[in-house]
């Protein structure tokens, strides 16, 4: 074991030692002692190689801890929230009204005075929002509840409301959207008003629903898709048909599909747009395919839409 060097004498003490040596001995002896002392003190004050520590700017990579390196990769595929038993379809609207809006319909007294002048009577824009897939699936599934994950101005939601009405179905459509759009979306919607940084997306969506006379069949949850889907699962709000059309990067699509599938009723169908878009290296398609593979499900295509039927 390496021996600890004796403690270094304080600075003033070191000086006195040297003066004493010079006074006490003859010149050659003094010089010799002085040389020895200098060497000795220099050795003591030199930085020890064992005391070297990385500085705060050190770029030494931090090694993974035993716990994190041992975590199974499959953790990424685990969405552990447990849903309660589904409430009756007839109770879906009231459940959302109670849980989200304290029992007061958001359509009451809409639009408020401070907003009405900022809205267009009707402003719809969607992407593939009236594709054949909607008609095909609604005819086949005849859903009592539809959940739409990603609504924007309501183009696809209102198209579905029209289709269900035409078939004589009393379908509730729940639209999940934080109504923030995406950074820069106003470049293409220059007429949309902004008040202190707040875009009028939710109000314009609501105005579109009012214009389409669909307030009895449409409700919305103005939150992030992940948190709203978890809450629906917690409240037992399930659907026979779920459309996923929010974030198109892999991780958003992956999370939305996994969370949405938990609240799909047995025999129901989950589907979504943009299977072929290039966003995030075809993120939607990668998420859909991986989900189907892990859950032993089959992906079908209908135009630009992917479709998965539940087991
Ligand atoms: C492509 S648009 C939906 C279009 C709509 N389905 C249609 O066809 O008319 C995507 C929407 O998803 C919403 N969105 C994206 N990521 C979201 C998230 N993490 N939480 C809530 N909404 C989100 C955006 O605000 C935007 O309105």
From TrEMBL:
* Residue ranges the record marks as coiled coil: none
Give the superkingdom in one word.
Eukaryota
- Which SUPFAM superfamilies does UniProt cross-reference here? S-adenosyl-L-methionine-dependent methyltransferases
Instruction: Give the matching Gene3D superfamilies.
Output: Vaccinia Virus protein VP39 (3.40.50.150)
Name of the protein in question: S-adenosyl-L-methionine-dependent methyltransferase
| Species of provenance | Fraxinus pennsylvanica
What broad taxonomic lineage does this protein's source fall under? Eukaryota, Viridiplantae, Streptophyta, Embryophyta, Tracheophyta
